[in-house]
Amino acid sequence: MxxxxxxxxxxxxxxxxxxxxxxxxxxxxxISAKASNNIFYAGLAVPAVIWWLSxxxxxxxxxxxxxxFFACFGLFALLLGFRDVSFLKxxxxxxxxxxxxxxxxxxxxxxxxAFLAYSLxxxxxxxxxxxxxxxxxxxxxxxxxxALWGRTGNPIFAALMIISGLVFLWVFHVEAxxxxxxxxxxxxxxxGLVGLCAACAVVFQARSALLGMAFFxxxxxxxxxxxxxxxxxxxxxxxxxxxxxAGSILLxxxxxxxxxxxxxxxxxxxxxxxxxxxxxxxxxxILGQFYxxxxxxxxxxxxxxxxxxxxxxxxxxxFFVLTWRARSSWLLVALVGWGGLLTDTNGVIASPRTLWxxxxxxxxxAVIESGRPALEAYYRARDxxxxxx
Length: 389
Prior knowledge:
Blueprint: H1 10-26, H2 33-53, H3 67-83, H4 86-104, H5 110-140, H6 155-181, H7 183-204, H8 207-224, H9 227-244, H10 246-251, H11 258-273, H12 296-325, H13 329-340, H14 354-370, H15 372-383
Helix pairs in contact: 1-2, 1-5, 2-4, 3-4, 3-12, 4-14, 5-6, 5-7, 6-7, 6-8, 6-13, 6-14, 7-8, 7-9, 8-9, 8-13, 11-12, 12-14, 13-14
């Protein structure tokens, strides 16, 4: 039994995971962004900071779980903050989210329980959206793009949040159960997972979510050494999409101006703002209509120039080296976010929003999972417990 479980707090073990669940699900609800953010600020951030500062001599210890990653994250935030101070404020919120995960994970598995409940809600919402899509198709003969409520009114964010939940269910709950039954059951299950993810992308017409699924499948195939099986499953799903006509639905919106946006953003940095430090949040409308570059990777270059892009790349490298060596299961969930960010969002440094659910929480949980020995030492020090001989 982990030393961290020797002095459990029943309140912390039950209340804070419940608040985390409410915070994640709140993005699906028809409430204001302020209301959703306040759930995090009051229910998680303030308690986490108080908990963290209650052991002032140990304030740097949680970050020893991944020192290279957090050093790169800090430098990345500072370089962006050099262009716009709002990045510094948002990076503090993200750092507090990590402390929140550390606090909750003192009862190991608590974040997984919250994410499980969230994932079941996401699965239910996919069912609701699919029914709406089918009814609209039968009524009008047109494949409408379904939108949910609240901050998932953006179909791309809705699809990424749902696919993140589906991947979590597979990695942590479904796969092992099917594998105990038979290899055939496992591969049929994987076929079902990929089919659900593809259906989600079709219903929400979200190609960025397909990229997230693709990143997961590549990571899953290589980490588990299932390359041939994954290729077969993927091939079958692609054949179904083409044969059913669903694939053409995904192609209806073309490239959504992504290549033009990226080219214009890069040209502006090189030609007007400066390659080293970028443009910052200059409120410039790219191509006269887009407020950001629609890619977290291009955004790193646009907002902070080559210096920020390189530190972002270093942060990503530190993350993947750490979590890949540890064969982290949370890494597979985080890959959905890393893939989805390729063609959407205005960067990873942001105040509480859907990005936190499908990117930052899985990323931090992969870090915690991979750096668990360092965190166990931190928990022992807080509790005044000696390490076992």
